[in-house]
Design a protein that fits this description.
The protein has helices spanning 42-49, 67-77, 93-100, 109-119, 132-144, 162-177, 214-220, 233-236, 256-269, 279-289; strands at residues 3-13, 18-27, 31-35, 60-62, 78-81, 150-154, 182-187, 199-204, 207-213, 222-226, 241-243, 249-253, 272-276. The protein folds into two domains: 3-213, 3-Layer(aba) Sandwich (Rossmann fold), CATH 3.40.50; 221-289. The two termini are 33 Å apart. It is an alpha/beta fold. The strands form three sheets. The protein has a six-stranded mixed beta sheet, with helices on both faces. A four-stranded antiparallel beta sheet has the order 11-12-10-13, with helices on both faces. A three-stranded antiparallel beta sheet has the order 2-1-4, with helices on one face.
């Protein structure tokens, strides 16, 4: 496996919050999703991965290097889009491009303006005239225009309308598929990101509660809808989430292959059926069970 980023036993403490022993490996050309409720530690983790918050040397390695000794090179290879981008409100979009260009060895001015056109962000507008979603798109355009090979995006779809959200998801999928970029996205809701994330990390209260390939999660986690009384109590006790309803129950299993034989009679009789579980379903199960 060609590893782009590796964090090992990462701990970061503040007065009222701590990341605790977070380890993470990101493959080249992949899209990794970091999900969790508000205050789970997602923003703190991304700031550390992008060298926006200090940690002990060697805890985070990017392209086999550490920020402490390779800051200049990694600054050009890593693009960070924060949850709330910061700009000079009275300056135009085009001014910001001219301002940051000298700091990056591979700045692509033409590419930047092409992205603005695609995102429908007017380069002549002052930042204070932009919506929150447009500011996020501006920040993303700047990250993409300096040749970043690793994109670290905090709540990238927040504030975007459905058209721009879909365009962004398609763009990230294309970048990763072409091998041009590796992407890390974090969000408190899946909001379409579950469609593109190949590897998933769930954070809760500053710690990792689950890490897995998305395909593996979708294979193992399923809803079983069934008529009351058609499944043994022992089977119900194995559900991660159980919802009893007047016209039938449903249970969320985290290991369908292990339960398939036990529920086979109910499936064969039509008293039960298996349905897709979303990443949001899985996340909510962990949060409620914590």
């Amino acid at each position: 496996m060609d590893t782009v980023l590796e964090a090992t036993d990462l701990t970061k403490s503040y007065e009222d919050f701590s990341l605790r022993g977070v380890s993470l490996t990101v493959r080249r050309g992949s899209i990794s999703g970091i999900f969790g409720p508000n205050a789970a530690g997602k923003t703190t983790l991304l700031k550390v991965l992008a060298a926006q918050a200090p940690v002990p040397p060697g805890v985070v390695r990017v392209f086999g290097q550490i920020y402490e000794t390779s800051e200049g090179d990694l600054k050009n290879r890593v693009g960070y889009v924060p949850q709330e981008p910061t700009f000079y409100p009275d300056k135009t979009v085009a001014w910001h491009a001219r301002f940051v260009a000298p700091y990056f060895a591979r700045w692509d001015g033409a590419g930047f303006h092409n992205l603005l056109e695609s995102f429908r962000v007017n380069p002549l507008k002052k930042v204070k005239q932009l919506s929150g979603g447009q500011k996020k798109l501006l920040s993303l355009a700047m990250a993409l225009s300096h040749g970043a090979q690793l994109l670290i995006l905090d709540e990238p779809t927040a504030g975007l309308d459905v058209v721009h959200r879909r365009s962004l998801l398609d763009l990230l999928r294309t970048l990763a598929a072409d091998g041009e970029s590796t992407v890390i996205v974090a969000s408190h809701i899946t909001d379409g990101l579950d469609e593109i994330a190949e590897d998933v990390t769930f954070l809760h209260d500053g710690r990792v509660v689950l890490q897995a390939a998305s395909d593996d999660l979708m294979t193992r986690w399923k809803w079983i809808h069934y008529k009351d009384g058609s499944l043994d109590r022992a089977i119900e006790d194995r559900f991660a989430t159980l919802r009893r309803q007047p016209f039938g129950n449903r249970g969320l299993t985290d290991d369908l292959p292990a339960l398939r034989e036990a529920v086979a009679p109910a499936l064969a009789s039509g008293d039960a059926r298996i349905a897709h579980a979303s990443l949001e379903d899985i996340l909510l199960s962990f949060v409620k069970g914590a």
